[in-house]
Amino acid sequence: MLKVILKGHDCFYGIADILRMFYSEISEDREKGFVTAADAPDLTLINTLENDGSSVTEVKESGKRYAFDGAPLETGREVRRSLYIALEDITGTALPWGCLSGIRPTLVASEEESAEELARKYLVREDKAALGFETSREEMRLLGLVPHDDLNIYVGVPFCPSRCSYCSFISEDISHHMGRLGDYEAALENEIRTLAPHINRRISTLYMGGGTPTVFSDEQFARLLDCIYENIRIDPSCEVTIEAGRPDTITGYKLDAMRSHGIGRICINPQTMRNATLAKLGRLHTSENIVRTYELARDKGFEVINMDLIAGLPYETGDDFVESVSKLIKLDPGNITVHTLYKKRRAALSKETVLDREESRGDIDAAVSEGYRLLYEAGYHPYYLYRQKDTGHGLENTGFAKGDTGCLYNVAMMSDARDILSFGAGGMSKRCFEQDGPASKHRVERCPTVKDALRYIRGSFEAAERKRAFFGL
Prior knowledge:
This protein is an alpha/beta fold. It is built from 16 helices and 19 strands.
């Protein structure tokens, strides 16, 4: 067992974060002042914050000391950095994002003058520093197109036609709860009709996500769209995106219903273009279904279509992922988002399968880099980026866009700098307050909605009233 003793500071969360990047079984003892990794070598490290603000990590058994040769960072980042330097040497593993352990490396990148400085200060690999620096500038540009006083709306539908083995996001697999879908749609309408009359702010973006919003019947889906547009003031400049997701749930009727409201942005998400993988993951469509649905949506006049892929899926190699990227590039969608498989809490896949530390599926890091190279070559550029804990190979999720087609909602939501009003079970509404200091810094207050769909159905009116009070409407 590896033990990290904290000396001169109490940054337990940050120390645990760095340990988690290398090991799995992490626990904190705040009373005794240490953090442990049960699946690590038997070592004791002393992580000290010095009086001058610098940090040193010492191996108790050998006396070897690790520190950064340069100016200290803010305390939380500084103690992470010296521990990362120690663990990189102990394990012989350098991680792509160095000592950056947070969800938004682009937030740190936005503070730097160059990719080289990002790489130097935080031990970030050169290619990732360049990616983070470029993406941070595009995120800031797009965020500037969303006025701070505007409101951004999320409508959540936590149902899918089947549950993918890598996913725990949705509340229910609708194949076992068909009767609840109509009730859920009615509850959403009730919450929208209750709260919408009190909204007195301009709407910048509206995003309907899930789950799979197109899991509704044609009539239910059209009725929900009608409810949204009849009750929420959506002017022509508002960006509206519908996450259609599964091609097996998309019909010509639903596409026509969206187009009748002027909606021009949708997501059609294959995750992989390899049929054998799709079947083993529990997805009810083929790559041929994806292509047909994509072409139908194009014919219906959708200007921007996003398509998601996941790197590091079980049952396929890095080469399979690169082949999927190539196939999507040939379709020429406006956006392609590359996710890296990560361990979701209630997913069927084990953490060991997700992290794949032995690289049984090949070099996913290299495959992602090759996928990015192909996207750049085809005229795409990164417009938003974020990371998640327990992601295979220490990688990231990156949205790529052609031209000026990046999704404003994605940037606004991820920024924690713009207000989000969320309808539906499991949604998180938030208010973001500007503070003195860096422009990227905001104080955020959150108002969660109950995750269980049945409880939400029973209490959608109360959910609306709670958000009305939260936003002071």
